[in-house]
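Consider the following assembly input.
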Amino acid sequence: MQETQLTLIIGLIVMALINASSLVWAFYLNQKLRNKPVPKIYDVHVEGTKIFTPTDMAAIEEQAMVQLQKASEQAAGKIQASINSALSRVADHVDEMTTTTLNAEFQKYQISLQALREQTIAEFTKLQQELDGQRNQLMENLEKQVALEREKRLAQFNSRLNDVVSGYIAESLGSQVDLGSQMVAILQKLQEHKEQIKKDILT
Amino acid sequence: MKLPPELYSPDTLSFAIMELSHYSGALRDYAARATAGHAPQPQPPEVLAHILDILDVPNDLEAIENLRKNLEQHLLKAPTVHLILAAFPSSAVKRQLAQWFRAEISNDILLTFAVRSDIGGGIVVQAGSHLYDFSFKRTLLSNKARISEIANV
């Protein structure tokens, strides 16, 4: 505890000394600065109206106007020349664009368009041919189906007609069949096919 | 040997063979008993007698036996034709058909008969593997355009 107090006291004394020395140094520098010579500043004011006479002023003004006009004309001439040159270059460039570049582009476009048109025509032609082929095949299949169906229906009709005729005969003739009166016709039919029957029986 | 028209079918031939067998058995019995002198001489049935008369076969055992054997051979070897008619044929019709077939096709041919009323009339002949349809039904179906004309009669 006493060491701490001692340390603090010593530190305070050191700080006080530092502050004092700083103050002394600052005072010294101030004094030095005060003693340094300062340059004097003089304001000079010239009244122009009192240097030249009115006649000289008019002549100077006139000359200035002439020179100004001359300079303006020169500048305008240069600007005009420059504009003319630029305009002619622009016109030339535009001509070149329209005649050469644009024509070339139009030609390329036309070639591309022609190629596209030809390709489209070829594709459509191919598509048309495929469609025609498919249509023909479908028509053939349809005709075959129709023919098959027709044959099937005819066969069914013939089968039913067979039954109808059998039923009609059975119903209309019934038990009124007279074989005796049919024998002449029967024997005639047998005689007409005698050779075929003989061949079938004896072989 | 030419068969009479009465023996027109396998059935009638079989019947005749059976009758001949019975009759030849009766004749054999008679021959065995004749020595004892008891049995009367057998007579063939009317139909058989008619057949024996037509075929000119004497009424003795040996001839009867020979006839029976011939008919049995005939039954085995003779060709057969199947006939279909619209109604059951009478004896006259059967005789007529048998005479025609034996005169025109083969003298030992045998016939069978069947009835189908749906053919209306005419005849259907099955010879071998072929069928000859001469019926009214076939005629109508061959002329379908005229069916309506016939139906309107």
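Chain A has four helices and no strands. Ask yourself how this observation constrains the way the partners meet.
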